[in-house]
């Protein structure tokens, strides 16, 4: 079985790029997706997949950062899945796919049974250490990227604050979703409760709103009539 795993850190981000990248190479992959921070491995969809996969299955990631942004934990999970004979594919870092790691194991220099084996064992240990180091570097780089992003965000917020800009929601000003006004306009135009001929279910799908948000907007529109 081939699985794809796509993850974003915040719901407002787009996950479609990751899905497209996976499906381009693995069109039949069963893709699990979620919005959850990459610094934690106890993500709901990931944990379902982690427990479900069995020997011979494949998990495809757009990049190593989608699996984990914590180097130590990421490498630990990598090794555990490898030992379970689960194939891991990282589209942006193919050099750390488990197939590559597996080849490093298989390509060990054969021992000869004499004193030169002391040297050959050292060569084999070096090859394995080199392969593991490449994997750890990829996870380390992913962890560094998220740390750098957090630092740039903090610096940007501080710079904006020093320049007198309002940071965050302004007290006393009601929050208005960016798509609230256009969504309400479409509901007025399409819903048979107002000026259209679509049912609530049809209108909800067309406007692309959750059930709660749709009926909230509809109530507000009714009160304004």
Provide structural commentary.
The chain is an alpha/beta fold and 225 residues long. The protein is 55% helix and 9% strand. The protein is built from 9 helices and 4 strands, in the order βαβαβααβααααα. Strands 2-1-3-4 form a 4-stranded parallel β-sheet, sandwiched between helices. Strand 1, helix 1 and strand 2 (30-35) form a beta-alpha-beta unit.
Short description:
With 225 residues, the chain is of the alpha/beta class.
Layout of secondary structure:
Elements lengths: L1 E7 L7 H10 L4 E6 L8 H9 L5 E4 L2 H4 L3 H13 L3 E4 L7 H9 L10 H46 L17 H11 L9 H8 L3 H14 L1
Parallel strand pairs: 1-2, 1-3, 3-4
Helix pairs in contact: 4-6, 5-6
Low-confidence stretches: none
Quaternary assembly: single chain
Mean residue pLDDT: 77
> Number of helical runs?
9
């Amino acid at each position: 079985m081939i699985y794809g795993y796509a993850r974003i850190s915040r719901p407002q981000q787009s996950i479609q790029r990751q899905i497209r990248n996976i499906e381009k190479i693995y069109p039949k992959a069963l893709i699990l997706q979620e919005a959850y921070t990459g610094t934690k491995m106890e993500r709901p969809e990931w944990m379902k997949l982690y427990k479900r996969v069995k020997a011979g299955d494949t998990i495809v990631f757009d990049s190593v950062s989608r699996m984990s942004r914590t180097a130590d934990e990421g490498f630990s999970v990598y090794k555990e899945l490898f030992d379970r004979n689960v194939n891991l594919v990282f589209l942006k870092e193919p050099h750390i796919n488990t197939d590559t790691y597996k080849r490093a194991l298989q390509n060990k220099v054969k021992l000869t049974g004499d004193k030169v084996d002391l040297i050959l064992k050292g060569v084999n240990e070096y090859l394995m250490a080199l392969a593991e180091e490449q994997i750890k570097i990829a996870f380390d780089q992913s962890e560094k990227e998220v740390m750098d992003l957090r630092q740039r965000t903090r610096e940007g917020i501080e710079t904006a604050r020093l320049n007198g800009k309002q940071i965050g929601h302004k007290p006393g000003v009601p929050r208005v979703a960016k798509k609230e006004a256009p969504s309400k306009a479409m509901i007025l135009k399409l819903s048979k409760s107002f000026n259209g001929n679509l049912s609530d279910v049809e209108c909800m799908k067309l406007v692309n709103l959750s059930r709660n948000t749709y009926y909230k907007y509809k109530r507000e529109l009714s009160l304004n009539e």
